[in-house]
Amino acid sequence: MTQYAIKVTPLTYQSGNITFSQWMSLFTICFAPLIIHIIAGAPEPAYLCRRRPRWHERMCLYSPVTILWRYAAITDRRIRAIDWSPSDLAAANAIFWTSDGWDGSEEMAAKSVQYCARLPDRTRMTLFSSESIKTIVVTLQGVNAIFSNVISTGDWTGSLAGYHANLSVGNVFSALALCGLLRLFATFWITNDFSYIAFDNIPPGMSCAWAVSSDSLEMVPTTREIDNVRHPGSKDPEHRFRPTSNWSRLFRFVFLSAFAMPCLGGLITILVFQGWNIQLTMTGAVGIALLAFSFALGSGVYAYYAARHDCKSTIIPCISATWYKVGTAAIYLGWAALVTVSAIETRRVPCGSYTTSTPESGDDAFLCPGLVRVRQNSTWEPFGLIAEAPVANTSTASGDGHYMVTYFTGSCHGILGENVTVGNSSRAA
User: Would the keyword Membrane be found if you checked this record's keyword annotation (predicted)?
Assistant: First the structure.
């Protein structure tokens, strides 16, 4: 009969033997996916009004849910575009802050060209650009996350042994690196080769907007209000973008499936191959809880707006909602808790790798093939080192079949051979 139990090991302090230089290396590796996640996914906003957003209004820009929404919305807008122009590319990538708050609508895409001081040269990403480098880095981190957690351990059955064996403070953000692969959907339409005129840069004494020539992008004063300015040659959004299409619906389904697959796939395989008899460290429990919460928030928001056909804005529509701010704050606090707990539980195994599992768990075998744990006074496990007994007061082996066992507690890294019996003793060949 299948047992249904999830056991969490109490918080265990194991990091006392890690040196300062090793800590610096671990924290550098730890925060690398988080830093590139923010740098690549959350560009500096384009301010079109004097008032700047407060900290709680900017906070949600760095949420993984917000950033993944942006990748999906850019791709979806490109699919629905009737005539994709450099101004559309710039507007899709910009994060506009207006007097009414964040605005990533298609109407803003038509209006924003009046504030644009520089447009991209092409309608797609430039091969040699900072954004292409960011994409390469994000992709490499995602591939490394797959290799470290699955391929290197050979753990294809969904058991948690490989996950626990590799889990340490150095890779607690591997799930974030894996989600970064969703950026590949929007690879060809991500750029930062544009700039918009901020309200504060308008010359003193000018209460009017500065219009932009459609031919030369030369700024000239205009007496029209900013919110009513339109590009002379721009079309209304309904004439520039299709409301929806079969390709758009297909993309939304594929994107949501790609987002949900790692979480749902891991859960299903765990239940099929391992059942509910699961042993977790405190780091593993916090990490899984945080991953489940982030997945539920992201997939729920995305599915809700996709069902309502309200995925046209490149900024997630609920970014100013109180409940979304609370959810984002919960994710940030979860990150802090995960780093703290993993730093307490991380230990260095004999072969030089790091893990948060305890030595008694036996998970070290995933990181150190051939590792043998040796314990004193053990009946069925290795308990010492054996050698031929030397002649009294010399270092020469007696050669008479007598052996000496030296009790040993620790680990031996190598290959355990077959047992060979000699006389009344046995030894490992």
Answer: yes
